[in-house]
Hints:
It is a single chain. α1 (18-29) links the parallel β1 (11-14) and β2 (35-39). This protein is an alpha+beta fold. It has helices at residues 18-29, 62-76, 78-81, 102-117, 127-133, 157-167, 208-211, 267-285, 329-346, 351-355; strands at residues 11-14, 35-39, 54-55, 90-91, 95-99, 122-125, 144-148, 152-154, 170-172, 175-181, 184-189, 194-197, 199-202, 218-226, 238-241, 246-250, 256-260, 296-304, 311-316, 319-323.
Amino acid sequence: MPGRPSPVGEVAVVGAGVTGLFVAHELSRLGVDAVTVYERTGIAAGASGVQPGGIRQQWGTAVNCLLARESLATYRDAQARLEMRVDPGFRACGYLFLAHSGETRARLAANIALQNELGIASRIVEPDEAARLVPGLDPSSLAGAAWCAEDGYLDRPQAVLEALGERASVVRAGVVGLREEGAGWELAFADGTSTTAAKVVVAAGWESRALLPELPIEREARYLFLSEPIRERLLEPLVISPERHFAAKQLADGRVLASDLTAAGDPGLERDGWRRHVRECVETLLPTLEFVALPLLVEGFYDVTPDHQAILGEVRPGLWVAAGFSGHGFMLAPAVGRIIAEAIALGREDEALRVLDARRFAEARLLPEPQVV
Ligand SMILES: Cc1cc2nc3c(=O)[nH]c(=O)nc-3n(C[C@H](O)[C@H](O)[C@H](O)COP(=O)(O)OP(=O)(O)OC[C@H]3O[C@@H](n4cnc5c(N)ncnc54)[C@H](O)[C@@H]3O)c2cc1C
């Protein structure tokens, strides 16, 4: 309802990553027209600008399955739903989780049972079928694999950020403090100025903790090796070996992405070791990538919580949080944006707000997500 004062009042969103921008987008869809996004550095300056656009429904908790399923529907049809000039190009290339032991196969099968109950078309595949789904995969070490053909990647994930950022009212300002002020909140900025808002949504990734110190969010570095763009298509699905801490995929621009999922430490000192680990995994699992050089190393930061689940909801009257996505915030953002916006504008409490609230840490209601990468 443009032009009409919103009964919600001014809403300030802190952080112009994918989460903050989807919250702003959904609020404006609900007719809340006084929404300002405060961003210290630039649109997608955090993890949102690094992630390569992977979207999967294969999770081990119902809340993530449902958030991902809803978000996938938005991304699949993003150009129409988000009224984008550029099609970000969702491709259902599939995600294949490898099991090298009976134990991992059983764990993946338990998650698949949950996914199937929730309408997600994932299934266990035998090693020979895994090799047919991923030409070039050596199945000799496999005890099976988990496959969902609907999971996939966006060709141009940054186009989503650009489209939402263009439409939102984004102000370049770093928020350094939040203080209760009457019925609302005062936001103090790095340059000494301040403003007030009736509601605030903190969506500042790992830096959310600087504004809400009570939140158990830790910064964790993650690294992706990338090749130069290759014209030949070598690997369509994302292949993940949780036991060998390895993942690989060829992106739409032709670059092969490969990751040592345990990489930690100083990249200057450790990168050769990480690259060696990736090479060993390539040789034994995906020999088709044997001659692909991986000269580029990209660093980004996860915002990790003790149960590897997001923290969503109102932490004090009028003060909301959507952070702690632990490495899967892009694929959940459309649903998270809707849920936070509906709670603020309509007072609607989604089940996700009940189970992913900030109080769960003090009340020992952790909900560990077993299928993290
Ligand atoms: C290497 C890597 C690969 C990944 N791959 C995937 C994937 O395939 N699929 C997936 O779903 N997820 C993936 N992720 C995770 C995903 O990128 C994040 O979960 C998601 O982008 C989080 O978005 P966000 O908006 O919550 O936070 P961010 O993108 O971190 O945005 C936070 C923003 O807040 C701003 N900010 C911080 N503090 C302040 C302040 N005080 N004042 C004003 N502004 C502030 C920052 O500048 C930043 O722009 C990956 C992450 C990494 C690092």
